[in-house]
């Protein structure tokens, strides 16, 4: 192995939501399926490969998706099932590798640098894929390369249920013939701008002078140019479910005022839910803490479907508090903590909600981020 040569493996569950639904109902296999809300204003959260042949894609308005494939079945999302299987896959990977990064509910990075001299990275990755499928029933694809960027693109090219290894030194050559849409970070607006410039393939993008890209887009232009050239030094960040976001409040005087306590819980939950979304994370476990006037401290937690949405988290927090607060003693402190954090966009939970609700969360977060997190809050949070 050459000095500074890395071996990074990327694993991504194929059509994750759809395949979980097929596990629950095998008769759905091989059919065009869409997971999401059934109203015209809902969005497609996921779709089967059979549905993708009609041009359907994730995040597409459901109304348009139905036009493209009227015969497609629409299934309401079940985040509890998806969270369960995500944890199941995480356990399999944790049991087989010393260190990994959980990039979202359905994708993982593993640093296999140096493993060739002992086990063989390619065969190890294949064995791990087989174990995941055998123990969970879910197909998973794998890409392997010198960095996270190229390994992720390789996984996308290997789908469904495949493996693709990009030898060290071939990163730029591998990316060159691919469409610019396949480059992570090249979103719809960026892609449209580049296509207007006549840039269709990653090869063309990689040949544009970096100074021109900087003038065009600023620092993001430099990063996009680096990616087009297969350059990525980002490390595999070890995954730990011990990471948390929490907040506590100690009162000036002990209280038994239930309305006050509930309003405080609303404030605290909204505060750290906002932090979750700002960090682009989801939580899979909620804990509520109470310290009484005699300093006795009690906690209660609940494992939930991964989310970062206020209205779902508030429901869990209120349920935990009602079960926990049974002594009817003066309260000195209350706290809320989110754990089992994973990277992810909160929109994946909005199966039955409309794009209006998605935009509402985005606008509230934008305003609170600009003018202060308490600019917009629920009326029930006012003390």
UniProtKB/TrEMBL annotation:
Its EC number is 2.7.7.7. Residues 8-187 form the UmuC domain. The keyword Oxidoreductase does not apply. The active site is at 107. It is an enzyme of class 2 (transferase). Binds 2 magnesium ions per subunit. Mg(2+) binds at residues 12, 106. The keyword Repressor does not apply. GO terms for biological process: DNA repair; DNA-templated DNA replication; error-prone translesion synthesis; SOS response. GO terms for molecular function: damaged DNA binding; DNA-directed DNA polymerase activity; magnesium ion binding. Its main location: cytoplasm. Keywords: Cytoplasm, DNA damage, DNA repair, DNA replication, DNA-binding, DNA-directed DNA polymerase, Magnesium, Metal-binding, Mutator protein, Nucleotidyltransferase, Transferase. One of its GO terms (cellular component) is cytosol. InterPro entries: DNA/RNA_pol_sf, DNA_pol_Y-fam_lit_finger_sf, DNA_pol_Y-fam_little_finger, DNA_polymerase-Y, DNApol_IV, Rev_trsase/Diguanyl_cyclase, UmuC. The record marks 17 as: Substrate discrimination. Its cofactor is Mg(2+). It is found in: Cytoplasm. PANTHER family: DNA POLYMERASE KAPPA (PTHR11076:SF33), DNA REPAIR POLYMERASE UMUC / TRANSFERASE FAMILY MEMBER (PTHR11076). Belongs to the DNA polymerase type-Y family. Poorly processive, error-prone DNA polymerase involved in untargeted mutagenesis. Copies undamaged DNA at stalled replication forks, which arise in vivo from mismatched or misaligned primer ends. These misaligned primers can be extended by PolIV. Exhibits no 3'-5' exonuclease (proofreading) activity. May be involved in translesional synthesis, in conjunction with the beta clamp from PolIII. Monomer. This is DNA polymerase IV.
């Amino acid at each position: 192995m050459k000095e500074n040569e890395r071996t990074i493996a990327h694993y991504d569950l194929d059509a994750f939501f759809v395949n979980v639904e097929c596990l629950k109902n095998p008769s759905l296999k091989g059919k065009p399926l869409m997971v999401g809300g059934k109203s015209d204003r809902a969005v497609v959260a996921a779709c089967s490969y059979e549905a993708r042949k009609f041009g359907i894609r994730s995040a597409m308005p459901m109304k348009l998706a139905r036009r493209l494939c009227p015969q497609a079945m629409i299934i309401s999302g079940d985040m509890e099932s998806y969270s369960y299987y995500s944890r199941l896959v995480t356990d399999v990977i944790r049991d087989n590798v010393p260190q990994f990064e959980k990039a979202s509910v359905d994708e993982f990075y593993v640093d296999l640098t140096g493993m060739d001299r002992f086990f063989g990275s390619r065969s190890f990755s294949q064995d791990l894929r087989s174990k995941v499928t055998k123990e969970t029933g879910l197909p998973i694809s794998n890409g392997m390369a010198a960095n996270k960027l190229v390994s992720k693109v390789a996984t996308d090219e290997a789908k469904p249920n495949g493996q693709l290894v990009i030898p060290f030194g071939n990163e730029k050559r591998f990316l060159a013939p691919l469409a610019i849409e396949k480059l992570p970070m090249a979103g719809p607006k960026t892609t449209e701008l580049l296509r207007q410039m006549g840039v269709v393939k990653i090869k063309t993008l990689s040949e544009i002078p970096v100074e021109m890209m900087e003038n065009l887009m600023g620092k993001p232009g430099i990063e996009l140019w680096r990616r087009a050239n297969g350059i990525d030094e980002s490390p595999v960040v070890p995954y730990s479910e011990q990471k948390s976001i929490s907040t506590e409040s100690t009162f000036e005087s002990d209280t038994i005022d239930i309305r006050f306590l509930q309003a405080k819980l609303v404030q605290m939950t909204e505060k750290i839910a906002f932090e979750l979304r700002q960090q682009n994370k989801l939580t899979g476990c909620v804990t509520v803490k109470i310290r009484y006037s005699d300093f006795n401290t009690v906690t209660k937690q609940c494992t939930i479907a991964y989310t970062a949405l206020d209205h779902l988290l508030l429901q869990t927090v209120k349920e935990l508090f009602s079960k926990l607060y049974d002594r009817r003693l003066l309260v000195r402190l209350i706290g809320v903590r989110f754990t089992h954090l994973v990277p992810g966009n909160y929109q994946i939970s909005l199966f039955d909600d409309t794009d209006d609700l998605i935009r509402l969360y985005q606008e509230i977060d934008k305003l609170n981020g600009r003018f202060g997190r308490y600019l917009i809050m629920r009326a029930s949070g006012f003390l």
